[in-house]
Design goal:
This protein is 26% helix and 47% strand. By secondary structure, it is α+β, with helices and mostly antiparallel strands.
Length: 148
């Protein structure tokens, strides 16, 4: 079983700034409290093929996650795929950015969650929690970018 969650927010920053902020996955802990640590491999600018390795805490358990950037089209499109083998993974996800009048940006974040093994029984719960949190997640992204 798999399913998608998403959130859309409007950020009071120009699209180039928003894209640059989101493309540096090392900013994720600023808006995602579940991300305890994240590293970019290799160091340097994000591009197709860049890996982000993180430690996250979900449901009281720490897990290691690895995401690979699969599409990088500044300043509009960023895509990733999770390569780690956890019970529930974000098999694919991304950001879609749209410039708005007045130097603002519409940001849509989306992820497809998949369950593996026993995770097939848990993915429904993970999706429900992610969907419930999606509006707040979008607001945390907005606040982090506007505060940067």
């Amino acid at each position: 079983m798999s399913g998608q969650f998403e959130a859309t927010v409007e950020v009071d920053r120009p699209v180039d700034e928003v894209f640059a902020y989101l493309a540096d996955g090392r900013n994720d802990p600023r808006f995602s409290p579940r991300v305890l640590r994240i590293d970019r491999i290799p160091e340097g600018p994000t591009a197709v093929g860049t890996l982000f390795r993180s430690t996250v805490k979900d449901a009281g358990m720490k897990t290691a996650r690895t995401f690979r950037i699969t599409a990088f089209e500044p300043p509009r499109t960023l895509r990733w795929a999770e390569e780690s083998k956890n019970l529930v993974t974000a098999s694919r996800g991304g950001y879609d950015l749209e410039p708005l009048p007045g130097g603002r940006t519409r940001v849509r974040v989306h992820n497809v969650l998949e369950g593996h093994g026993l995770g097939r029984l848990l993915v429904g719960l993970a999706l429900a929690a992610a969907r419930k949190d999606a509006p707040a997640f979008g607001q945390r992204i907005k606040a982090a970018i506007e505060a940067s």
